[in-house]
Amino acid sequence: MKKQLKGRKRKLAKDKWELIVNLGYNPETKIYERRYRTFFGNDRESDAALRDFIYELENPELIASQEPLKEYLGRWYEDYYLPNHEQTSSKRAERIIKNNINPYIGHIPIGELTTDHVQILYDTLFKEGKIRRRKGEDGKTATIKSPLSPRTIKYVHTILSQSLNHAVNRDKITDNPCKDAIPPKDKEAAPEKWVVLSALELKTFLEDDRCKLHRDYALIHTAAHSGARQSELLGLTKDRILWINSAIRIEQSLHKDDDREDGFEHRPRTKNRRSTRTVKMSAKAMDVLADYIKKQEEADIVSNLVFTEPDGRPIARNNLATRFSNLAAKLGYPEMTFHHLRHTHATLLLADGAYINDVSKRLGHATPAITLNVYAHCLPQGDDVLVQKFDNLLK
After folding, report:
1. Are residues 286 and 180 in the same domain?
2. Which of 51, 157, 344, 381 has the most CB atoms at less than 10 Å from its CB?
3. 388 belongs to a structural domain
């Protein structure tokens, strides 16, 4: 049985650490031996680096560059990727490693991995990287292979490149073999077709009895009047309704997470720094919220979440999407999604002359540039109007 080594770390300066591993007593030298390494990074990263250091010293027969890619990726994912990413991103990265990397090149030592290996991986995935298994009428399982999308292969490239960059930075390999490998280009996707309602159409939509009697009416009405993201509204809590100020405070979001007891993750943060915001609401919108919460209390629904299922459980976005699509179809908009309420809100404001920066803040975009890029076509002033305005200034 191999001797398990123990280590510790000592902070030298901000983001600078000394890693120390005790090798134990050496009877030949008659001293207690230690190994030292300097590491640059934050506290959590230094813990992972110390584990790496101990692993290398416990396995002297396994030269770092001879470690199979599969084993290296497993430790890199657990120690570096998982602690620094959201649950949704981590799950996807885990699937990519398990299904699209390890079965093909996981056995290759990282020191022997070449650009050719990586390029062949991308080419193989592009030809037959999507694997499905189906049972035939004879009861036997057949394996069906089809091309993996360029978009997914690009994500494979991102995960593999990030992990091997880490190996370069830790002196496990000298160069990243992904550097010169080229994933297939994704064909330019057709622009998403939005269903954006006019002010009159939205008013008619919200005042239709089929909408007003719908179980999600208050949620739909709030989305149309706030422009907030679906996950932000599903995560909205009652203590974040600012009744005196006629506003809602967006500070968290709700996401599906099958690993949790209730099946949901309440993230105490939003998509970006500017996404945490206060959104002013109309008196009508606040009245709808007040009426909805009153009905919840009368039905003895106990939940701090504003919008819930009739039994008080959080609303799953897939269920909401289905219910809204069915409602929209009945009202004459079969292609409309819940997210289109956000697009409608922004488009109506911009078309009416609202400042791009004000709309950007209201939507919670990271920068006004994002708002401009998404909604440039909605701005009322085209080149002809601008030319006429400039000409008028000179008259």
Report:
1. no
2. 344
3. no
